[in-house]
UniProtKB/TrEMBL annotation:
Keywords tagged on the record: 4Fe-4S, Cytoplasm, Iron, Iron-sulfur, Metal-binding, S-adenosyl-L-methionine, Transferase, tRNA processing
Gene: miaB
Protein name: tRNA-2-methylthio-N(6)-dimethylallyladenosine synthase
Lineage: Bacteria, Bacillati, Bacillota, Clostridia, Eubacteriales
Family: Belongs to the methylthiotransferase family. MiaB subfamily.
Organism: Agathobaculum faecis
Pfam families: Radical_SAM, UPF0004
Subcellular location: Cytoplasm
């Protein structure tokens, strides 16, 4: 596999020239920018880069689209519902555009990388002035400059699977930060559009990742989540004799008091070597999100997942043996084309056996352009919904049991925000990423505290600072 290509210094310098050029155009206007992100954490990280470029141009960020001079939607194409929401939000801006024609409305992300959506935007959404795909993100300054100077619509979904290092970034304030370690996906699960819109896997060099981690720690972030469509594949394309387990050990050695999380892991590439690294590294949170999607080997084969229910069980056993207190979560798709009652029963059996702390459950949503969209699907939507509700009932019973087991425990928590209730006014997370509402004296957002769990519910633990 060829090593990933990095955008050259000359190419990046040209974009900084356009940043300065845009700043010159808008200097006297003091414009405001509004951004909204749909979908995954990688989209959130991409938006932070766009916000960083906008900030360098001189835009002030706002949370009110009505007062913005530049509005951007970073979109998701994983599920139809996400696309519908994005189109709905864009459509609602038509009145704003008529009232204020000078407003620039932009759309980027995975939806923008699909030709069918590009044509739909061109024909039916004239209020959109700028559209660019995932591969063109680093060229955003030059694209915006064209919109401002040429006074016409600009559409760009071209580009290669390159990595751009050194882009400005404007992160959300708080205790948590995203850190992308790789981009794209090589897995081509039959239900998933991601490889078609984000390209093939390419890994960032470890020294660049470590440099960014050190910057985050210096800026005061306490929880850093490493991002990739399949972090377990990290390094395969670099030719540097480093894998994800090795990267974890390298980042764990960075000085500071912080937690490292990561997502998402693919079971076909998870290994004892990874679990050894997690167990050995004190800063790597003992939390694992390992999607299994279905407990049926036949459905897994049709999904092109490249593992079996039996091999998945072995992975979980190994992880729990090495980290007895590990928190486990997973993804499940209910109603994949051809799923029988027996297939679904095997999924329920795996859930009951593993006893996850958290599940993200989805009804199958066909995505145009993926193989599964053409699969025969005889099961009715009503039956799929009944199965979905059965799964939720089983999982709720498991979660209630696992949450109740925390009663009276003393845990280290990271305070990360404010809660709605007056009795427990702060939110926090356990090392296993469980939500906690906490009370006590002298609590500050962004600090680690010791607390005792006073009560539990299905969705939240409640604690008092010690």
């Amino acid at each position: 596999m060829p090593a990933p290509v990095t955008v050259s210094k000359e190419q990046l310098d040209k974009q900084f020239t356009y940043i300065d050029a845009v700043a010159g155009l808008i200097r006297d206007k003091r414009p405001r920018a509004y951004t909204h992100t749909f979908g995954c954490q990688q989209n959130e990280a991409d938006t932070e880069r766009i916000r960083g470029m906008l900030h360098e141009m001189g835009y002030e960020m706002t949370n009110n689209a009505d007062e913005a001079d530049f509005i951007l939607f970073n979109t998701c194409a994983v599920r139809e519902h996400a696309e519908d929401r994005a189109f709905g939000n864009i459509g609602a801006l038509s009145h704003l555009k008529k009232r204020r024609p000078e407003v620039i409305i932009a759309l980027c992300g995975c939806m923008a990388q699909q030709e069918k959506n590009v044509e739909k935007i061109k024909k039916s959404y004239p209020q959109v002035s700028l559209l660019f795909g995932t591969h063109a993100l680093w060229r955003f300054p030059s694209l915006l400059y064209r919109v401002l100077t040429e006074k016409k619509r600009v559409f760009d979904i071209g580009g290669e699977d390159d990595i751009a290092e050194g882009l400005p970034v404007l992160r959300a304030r708080g205790a948590k930060a995203w850190l992308s370690i790789m981009y794209g996906c090589n897995n081509f699960c039959t239900y998933c559009i991601v490889p078609y819109v984000r390209g093939r896997e390419r890994s960032r060099r470890p020294e660049e990742i470590e440099r960014e981690l050190r910057e985050l720690i210096a800026a005061g972030y306490k929880e850093i989540t490493l991002l990739g469509q399949n972090v377990n594949s990290y390094g395969k394309d670099l030719g540097l004799n480093i894998d994800f387990a090795g990267l974890l050990r390298r980042l764990n050695a960075v000085p500071g008091d912080f937690w490292l999380r990561f997502m998402t892991s693919h079971p076909k590439d998870a290994s004892p070597r990874l679990f050894d690294a997690m167990a050995d590294c004190e800063k790597v949170a003992k939390q694992l999100h390992l999607p299994f999607q279905s407990g049926s080997n036949e459905i897994l084969r049709r999904m092109n997942r490249h593992y079996t229910a039996e091999s998945y069980r072995t992975l979980i056993q190994d992880a729990r043996q090495k980290m007895p207190d590990i928190t486990l979560s997973s993804d499940i798709i209910v109603g994949f084309p051809g799923e029988t009652e027996q297939d679904f029963a095997q999924t329920l059996a795996l859930v009951d056996e593993v006893r996850f702390d958290l599940l993200f459950t989805f009804l199958y949503s066909p995505r145009s352009g993926t193989p599964a969209a053409s699969y025969e699907d005889p099961v009715t939507p009503e039956e799929k919904q009944r199965r979905f509700e059965r799964l939720l009932r089983v999982q709720d019973e498991i979660v209630a049991e696992r949450q109740a087991a925390y009663q009276g425990k003393r845990l280290r928590l990271l305070v990360d925000g404010m809660a709605k209730g007056p009795d427990y006014p702060y939110t926090a997370r356990t090392e296993g990423n469980l939500l906690v509402c906490v009370c006590g004296d002298g609590i500050q957002t962004g600090e680690f505290i010791q607390a005792e769990i006073e009560k539990t519910t299905l969705r939240c633990l409640f604690a008092r600072k010690l």
